[in-house]
TrEMBL record:
Molecular function terms, GO-annotated: FMN binding; oxidoreductase activity
Position of the signal peptide: 1-18
UniProt key word GTP-binding: no
InterPro entries per record: Aldolase_TIM, OxRdtase_FMN_N, Oye-like
Listed name of the protein: FMN-linked oxidoreductase
Keyword annotations: Signal
Naturally occurring in which organism (per UniProt): Guyanagaster necrorhizus
Ranges where the NADH:flavin oxidoreductase/NADH oxidase N-terminal domain occurs: 28-328
Pfam families cross-referenced by the UniProt entry: Oxidored_FMN (PF00724)
Taxonomy, superkingdom: Eukaryota
Length: 358
């Protein structure tokens, strides 16, 4: 029965953008722990963390958590560690494991989605970068500097170190965020990558940096995954299918034990559902399912009905993001046909307001 399969794979994708980290980019410990633990109640739930920044200079928006220092690792990890003669109360990953559930760490760099003012305020030496000098349409005067080839190689190593840190912090695997207009996506898609070197131009060249990150992370992590999605921040290529076909095929060819591929259904844009008749055929994810089969394919952006259908008819692992934010026992709500409360922005975005109201 599809519903039973569906229960075991209910997944939290992300949480709350503004709250997870303090000024030092450490998770807001007790609240974050409580939030994740609440959502791991159904044993076997796989949680995917919010995007966690790989290195200080790869950030550039307030309150995104990071995972580059021992303090941060400890904050995600286990209780009872003696730090500066006090016992750390932090225990996010252990608390999830105690419920019989799992959590992957989603890793990313912001590239041009950063705010250069925030970067400069953190450290005046942090450059505002991307694949090419192409600004976001919403901030045309903020023009990013293209990463040099040496910097690209350095970023790959930052992903590797962040992955090692995530495993040390008790995460069960890492998810490389290759979508939504963040740094790796800025290289993959032709709308943001006009480079003329080996990291731009052809599909193979545009996919080179994300694939190098995948290759390097796979060497150090037993479990890892990737996510390939087409939306967000000026990123909609005219025809994403050839590029993402190559990308998915390469990951499958190079890494037969890759944990999963994760994509968002085109019915969602940002936090809203789109009209079905707005969706163009090239936005559909079926080509990815076909390439990836029979390996695990996670899809997000579902209603209850479409989630059950995707699990039943396409064999997807179905992820819930917004509904899991606003329904602590989302799995139960989906499976036992309980009403599902949708998120309202006032209930998730307020900085410094305790999360208990969720
Ligand atoms: C408040 C909020 C924050 C999000 N943050 C992230 C993120 O950090 N990383 C990510 O991959 N997706 C993020 N997303 C997108 C969701 O993970 C999910 O893909 C999207 O909401 C569609 O799935 P859903 O219909 O189940 O919510 C966020 C969504 C919301 C509403």
């Amino acid at each position: 029965m599809a519903t039973l399969v569906f229960v075991s794979i209910c997944t939290l994708i992300n949480v709350f953008k503004a709250l997870p980290a303090d000024e030092r980019r450490q998770p807001h410990t007790e609240i974050v722990k409580e939030y994740y633990t609440q959502r791991s109640h159904a044993p076997g739930t796989l949680l995917i963390s919010e995007g966690i920044v790989i290195a200080p200079k790869a950030g550039g928006l307030p309150h995104f958590p990071g995972i580059w220092s021992q303090e941060m690792i400890t904050a995600w990890e286990r209780p009872g560690l003696l730090i500066a003669n006090t016992y750390s109360p932090y225990q996010v990953t252990d608390s999830i494991h105690a419920k019989g559930s799992f959590i992957f760490c989603q890793l990313f760099g912001q590239g041009r989605s950063a705010d250069p003012k925030v970067l400069a305020a953190e450290d005046s030496s942090f450059p505002y970068v991307s694949a090419s000098a192409i600004p976001l349409s919403t901030r045309p005067s903020d023009v990013p500097r293209p990463l040099s080839v040496d910097e690209i190689h350095e970023y790959t190593q930052l992903f590797v170190q962040a992955s090692l840190n995530a495993i040390e912090a008790g995460f069960d695997g890492v998810e490389i965020h290759g979508a939504n207009g963040y740094l790796l996506d800025q290289f993959t898609q032709d709308v943001s990558n006009h480079r003329t070197d080996e990291y731009g131009g052809s599909i193979e060249n545009r996919a080179r940096f994300p694939l190098e990150v995948v290759d390097a992370v796979v060497k150090v992590c037993i479990l890892e995954s990737s996510l390939t999605r087409n939306n967000g921040l000026d990123m909609t290529m005219t025809d994403p299918v050839p590029t993402f076909t190559y990308f998915a095929n390469e990951i499958k060819r190079r890494h037969p034990h890759f944990a999963y591929l994760h994509a968002v259904e085109p019915r969602v844009a940002g936090t809203a559902f789109r009209d079905e008749d707005e969706i163009k055929p090239q936005e559909e994810n079926d080509f990815l399912r076909k390439i990836w089969a029979p390996k695990p394919f996670i899809s997000a952006g579902h209603t209850r009905a479409s989630g059950i259908e995707a699990a039943d008819e396409k064999g997807d692992l179905v992820a819930f993001g917004r509904q899991f934010i606003s329904n602590v026992s989302c799995c139960l709500h989906v499976c036992f046909l309980l009403s599902i409360r949708m998120i309202g922005e006032p209930s998730i975005f307020h900085v410094n307001i305790p999360m208990h109201r969720l």
